[in-house]
Amino acid sequence: MNLGRIIGRVVATRKDDRLRGIKLLLLQPLRSDQTEIGGPIVAVDSAGAGASEMVLWVTGKEAAIPFRRDVPVDACVVGIVDSADVSG
């Protein structure tokens, strides 16, 4: 599981039919200290995340599990973080 922040939405006028009704988000991966790592990625949303929220996300075949059907995804938001404390 990874940490990230929602930085936008993706609107696709044409996409795979299996993605119909699924929200696409632009997500910035974060380190545990909440600094950015790498570039933004597109992820499907299974948690109802919104702009600027910190989220938990997964990759690989686990990304399709929340949808209980075959969807062509590589990354999925699976949780919304209420707070994070890295002070130990």
Description:
Helix content is 0%, strand content 38%. It has a single domain, classed as EutN/Ccml (OB fold (Dihydrolipoamide Acetyltransferase, E2P)), CATH 2.40.50. The protein is built from no helices and 5 strands. The protein is globular, with a radius of gyration of 13 Å. 20% of the residues are buried.
Which features does this protein show?
single chain; 88 residues; mainly beta; OB fold (Dihydrolipoamide Acetyltransferase, E2P); 5-stranded mixed β-barrel; 0% helix; 38% strand; globular
Give the low-pLDDT segments.
none
CATH T-level topology? OB fold (Dihydrolipoamide Acetyltransferase, E2P)
Q: Tally the beta strands.
A: 5
Q: How much is the radius of gyration in Å?
A: 13 Å
Shape, please?
A: globular
Structural class: mainly beta
State the fourth-level CATH superfamily: EutN/Ccml
Query: What is the end-to-end distance?
Result: 19 Å
Tally the structural domains.
1
Q: H/E element string?
A: EEEEE
Give the CATH class. Mainly Beta
Approximate strand percentage = 35-45%
Q: Care to give the gist of this entry?
A:
The protein is mainly β.
Topology:
Blueprint: E1 2-10, E2 24-30, E3 41-45, E4 54-59, E5 75-80
Parallel strand pairs: 3-5
Antiparallel strand pairs: 1-2, 1-4, 2-3, 4-5
